[in-house]
């Protein structure tokens, strides 16, 4: 998460963790409207609206008429929004590779073992919130 957030802060425009998460949710959910985004992010509708206002002003998101319901607006990433997410993911991957390269083979093996244990425990607990809204990477 630290690498993802720092990659977002280095992006142009600077994006908060909440803005990054919103962009990722919109990228993975077709026909998403503002109400659904607010629910997924766990924020109030006015806060989601302001968040989308800022992303739209930055040219990363657009609100278009929903094809199935003229009274709703659908949230879509702009080409620039997709490009920014791609650049952030690339920066994050490079940062992660650098950190992993600085670790000893034994430390990397321990990390891998610990992550496998974490995922088994998560699956056993039946709680996968990041996977459900497609925002975990």
Helix content percent band:
55-70%
Number of helices: 7
| Rg calculated over all Cα atoms | 17 Å
Task: Categorize the overall geometry.
Answer: globular
Topology:
Blueprint: H1 2-10, H2 17-28, H3 34-41, H4 45-57, E1 61-66, E2 69-77, H5 79-102, H6 105-125, H7 129-132
Antiparallel strand pairs: 1-2
Helix pairs in contact: 1-5, 3-4
In short:
The protein is mainly α. The chain is built from 7 helices and 2 strands.
Describe the structure in your own words.
With 137 residues, this protein is mainly α. 66% of the residues lie in helices and 11% in strands. It is built from seven helices and two strands. The protein has helices at 2-10, 17-28, 34-41, 45-57, 79-102, 105-125, 129-132, and strands at 61-66, 69-77. It has a two-stranded antiparallel sheet with strand order 1-2. Strand 1 (61-66) and strand 2 (69-77) form a beta hairpin. The radius of gyration is 17 Å and the shape is globular.
What are the defining features of this structure?
single chain, 137 residues, mainly alpha, two-stranded antiparallel ribbon, 7 helices, 11% strand, globular, disordered C terminus
């Amino acid at each position: 998460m630290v690498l993802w957030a720092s990659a977002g802060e280095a992006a142009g425009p600077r994006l908060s963790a909440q803005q990054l998460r919103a962009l990722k949710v919109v990228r993975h959910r077709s026909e998403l409207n503002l109400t659904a985004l607010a629910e997924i992010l766990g924020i109030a509708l006015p806060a989601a609206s302001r968040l989308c206002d800022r992303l739209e002003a930055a040219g990363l998101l657009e609100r278009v008429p929903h094809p199935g319901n003229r009274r709703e607006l659908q949230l879509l990433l702009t080409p620039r929004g997709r490009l920014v997410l791609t650049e952030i993911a690339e920066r994050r991957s490079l940062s992660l590779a650098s950190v992993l390269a600085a670790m000893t083979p034994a430390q990397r093996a321990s990390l891998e073992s610990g992550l496998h244990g974490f995922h088994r425990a998560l699956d056993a607990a039946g709680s996968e919130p990041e996977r459900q809204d497609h925002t975990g990477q």
